[in-house]
Amino acid sequence: MQQTKMAVPCRRTASRPLLQILSCFSGTTSRQFSRTCVCRAARQTQIVTERVRSPWTLMAAVCLQRLPVISADCSPVEQRVEQMMHQMELEKSLLSDHELRLLEDADRMSRKQAHDYEEDEEDAGEQEIMLAQDMEDTWELKLKRFQPAARVRADVDQTLTSSERCLADSLVLLSEQQVCGGKLWLLPQTRWQEGETLRQTAERALASLPAAAFKATFLGNAPCGVYKYKLPKAAWTDSSVGTKVFFFKAVVSHGAAPAAPDASHLWLKKSELQKYLKPAYMMKVERFIIGL
User: Fold this and answer.
1) Parallel, antiparallel, or unpaired for β 265-269 and 242-252?
2) What is the helix (H) or strand (E) element at residue 186, kind and residue range?
3) Is the pTM here over 0.85, yes or no?
4) Fewer CB atoms inside 10 A, N or C side of the chain?
């Protein structure tokens, strides 16, 4: 009897049309799929709404550096190592072409004085216009006329607005900007606009400088640091309670024309930044500044 009762529902299911059974499953699947799509759309709408309603103002700043133009002075230890390496190289080196030519000239001259030479050598000697010693005299004269450029220029090194100061050091560009009703020295920055990347915002911040006659090469598309601060409560609004600044690194391109001096911009060494930047801001900036 039990087997008969259990077989009845199976016969009823088997007697149903196949399309009717599939329609039941398809209806359930479509309802689940529609619920999933609605949930995803609602989640995306919520994310977009949160982005639009973000109380933080986004900005991009540029850490523009002018790399060293000349080599720095060697320390006493480096000088001793340089002298030792030079002495080792001198002792183990072979004769150069010029030194070999000096020996040949000396040998030819001694044999000529001793009348121990052939006519072919005499003709070859007459064809030589300049001997090795004559070349050394010419080089010595050029060396005496050469005047190397000064490594330390007091008139330029003290001018903080010049990008040609302190050629042996790396310099960072600061600009004076209006923040919360006051002026502060900061890295060049500007506000992000909808539709552009933060890298494009950083490029626009650099191009908007009044004395932007130089060309810069950006080092990557991703920020190298971020700094955020809250505005005073009196300045809070529904759409802004603070600012997030994303930093990008760039270097002045080799051979670019130096920018004209501008009182609103400073070229400073890393050791000089703390005199102009706030401590909290300086703590974020000094992490990614290349100190060469």
Assistant:
1) unpaired
2) strand 182-186
3) no
4) N
203-215: pLDDT as tens digits: 999 888 876 667 8
Instruction: Report yes or no: 270 and 83 within 8 Å, Cβ to Cβ.
Output: no
CB burial class (10 A; 0-12, 13-18, 19+) of residue 174? buried
Q: Are 174 and 186 in contact (CB under 8 A)?
A: yes
d(CA 169, CA 70): 8
Q: Which of 5, 58, 43 is nearest to 240 (CA)?
A: 58
**Which of 214, 185, 190, 167 is closest to 64 using CA atoms?**
214
Q: Which of 49, 274, 53 is nearest to 172 (CA)?
A: 274
Contact 269, 171 (CB under 8 A): yes
Compute φ and ψ for 248, nearest 5 degrees.
-125, 145
Cβ-Cβ contacts under 8 Å for 142 (sequence gap 6 or more): none
